[in-house]
């Protein structure tokens, strides 16, 4: 449901109304430890512990599968590549030219596939529920990032949606001139260059307009909405930090944890 006053999508999940900065911190706390591990046990445990987080985010089933489709495609493709060209160890099951499938490459492929899902799914799901304006408010007021940088980045993000409309307008204009039916590759490069020039011009106009309205001032600025961080945000971040901690602990106890730079004794 879309709020008519703020144009935000109201989601029913308890995680959706949490602070945008809390979601950013939670995604980083989950991702960074898992990036440094390369075993299937820690990634699998983390993925299982992330299921409640994914269910409580408030996404509909169709939206979830649509937004995360690239991960479900990338994970098996990455696993196949690692299985064929990964480090060889143990029994070799298949070998042809530079391709070699062994016990070591299969284990590494499984770990890679699960890690992609364990790192990517919470990041995608959490950021779907983040409003760019709320994130900018939190970064400027809570993280104390420069207001000029934050507001400029927010304005740039708001302009990204216009690129699709610009591309469609360029295609219609070329078709009206009769130059859109031949040379698809050349036409695509020409439209990309025209879109690049148009983006630069719009960015310059936006920068001038923002400077004229005082967005470039160095003095402390006020904010229309105060950034709020409650006890629930702290609990949410703490629970997110527990996911990789528990996953790595289980992997260490089972003797299967491998650090990204090499096995851990």
Report on this structure.
This is Energy-coupling factor transport system permease protein. There is one protein chain. This protein has 265 residues and is mostly helical. The chain has two domains: 20-131 and 229-263, no CATH class; 143-212, no CATH class. The protein has helices at residues 20-35, 40-55, 61-67, 69-85, 103-128, 132-141, 147-176, 184-212, 231-253; strands at residues 92-96, 99-102, 258-259, 262-263. The strands form two sheets. It has a two-stranded antiparallel sheet with strand order 1-2. It has a two-stranded antiparallel ribbon with strand order 3-4. The protein is flat.
Short description:
The chain has 265 residues and is mainly alpha-helical. Helix content is 66%, strand content 5%.
On the 0-100 scale, what is the average pLDDT? 82
Order of helices and strands: HHHHEEHHHHHEE
Radius of gyration: 23 Å
Q: How big a fraction of the residues is strand?
A: under 5%
Biggest sheet: strands side by side, in what order? 1-2
Envelope shape? flat
What does the largest sheet look like?
2 strands, antiparallel
The number of distinct helices, counting runs of at least 4 residues, comes to 9
Helix share, percent: 55-70%
The poorly predicted ranges are 1-7
Distance between the termini: 52 Å
- Overall number of structural domains: 2
The number of distinct β-strands equals: 4
The SS-based structural class is mainly alpha
Transmembrane segments: 21-49, 69-94, 106-130, 235-260
Pfam family, one: CbiQ
Subcellular location: Membrane
Keywords: Cell membrane, Membrane, Transmembrane, Transmembrane helix
């Amino acid at each position: 449901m879309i709020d008519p006053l703020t144009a935000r999508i109201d989601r029913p999940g308890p995680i959706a109304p949490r602070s945008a900065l809390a979601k950013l911190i939670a995604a980083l706390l989950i991702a960074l430890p898992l990036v440094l591990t390369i075993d299937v046990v820690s990634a699998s445990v983390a993925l299982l512990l992330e299921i409640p987080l994914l269910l409580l985010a408030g996404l509909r089933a169709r939206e979830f599968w649509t937004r995360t489709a690239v991960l479900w495609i990338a994970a098996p493709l990455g696993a196949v590549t690692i299985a064929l060209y990964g480090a060889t160890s143990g029994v070799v099951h298949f070998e042809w030219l530079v391709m070699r499938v062994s016990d070591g490459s299969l284990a590494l492929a499984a770990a890679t596939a699960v890690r992609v899902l364990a790192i990517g799914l919470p990041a995608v799901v959490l950021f779907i529920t983040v409003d760019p304006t709320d994130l900018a408010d939190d970064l400027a007021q809570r993280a104390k990032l420069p207001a000029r940088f934050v507001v400029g980045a927010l304005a740039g993000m708001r302009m990204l949606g216009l690129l699709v409309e610009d591309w469609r307008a360029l295609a219609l204009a070329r078709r009206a001139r009769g130059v859109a039916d031949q040379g698809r590759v050349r036409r695509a490069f020409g439209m990309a260059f025209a879109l690049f020039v148009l983006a630069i011009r719009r960015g310059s106009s936006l920068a001038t307009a923002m400077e004229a309205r005082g967005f470039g001032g160095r003095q402390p600025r006020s904010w229309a909405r105060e950034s709020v961080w409650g006890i629930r945000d702290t609990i949410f971040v703490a629970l997110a930090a527990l996911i990789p901690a528990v996953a790595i602990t289980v992997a260490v106890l089972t003797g299967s944890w491998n650090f990204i730079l090499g096995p851990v004794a």
